[in-house]
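Reader question, answered in our methods column.
A reader sent in the components of a multi-part assembly and asked whether the whole thing could be modeled at once rather than chain by chain. We filled in our standard form and ran it. Here is what they sent:
COMPLEX SIZE: two components
ENTRIES:
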Amino acid sequence: MSFSEVLKELSEGVPGSRGAAVVGMDGIIVEEAAVEPGVDLQSVGAEYGNLLKGAQAASSSLAIGKTEEITISAERAWLVMRRINEDYFIALLLSPESNMGKGRFLLRMAADKLIKEF
Amino acid sequence: MSFSEVLKELSEGVPGSRGAAVVGMDGIIVEEAAVEPGVDLQSVGAEYGNLLKGAQAASSSLAIGKTEEITISAERAWLVMRRINEDYFIALLLSPESNMGKGRFLLRMAADKLIKEF
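And here is the structure of the entire assembly that came back:
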């Protein structure tokens, strides 16, 4: 299953999704699927890419293992990021009216599918 | 209700909790309640304090409002951080066997109580 198929299935599977992307730890997007027009996933990747890297450094320093997932709830958007491997993560951008639980569940499924592609 | 009472109620209310703390955005702990012996909340605050600050900067730059909450799932620990105001947040450290949903719910209640104390 290609990156774009996995991302499309993920972002269309969660009502209230704004888009999904495979992102490098440097914040640069490899592939994206925007559901809502006008959503700038490039900027989201650039702004939040460093955060997952910072969290990885923190969890490693605290000896609590790899950081697998981060969720961020802002007033007008939610973001769930899940580690694929050392270098890449998958991100799902949601509206605050959406179902974060379903988003997290489908994101985990999508990450499992993508791991096989790397 | 004092900081320590709120933190004690929070950390004892979630089975699998390791502790809770009120932390400054600089990562320095104001008050803490460790449930599990040997848990070093000071180090957790220091390692993750910057993350919430980074997320606030990102959400502000993307014009999606204030960052209200961050959850981090590492292999051997979960952390939920919730913004109290510009300068402080409340953090709850959980074991991966605990109930993150209940943790997030009680953390929100605790943050609402603490806002009145600042």
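What stands out: The longest helix of chain B spans residues 41-61. The beta strands of chain B are 17-24, 29-34, 67-74, 78-83, 88-94.
Send us your own complexes using the same form.
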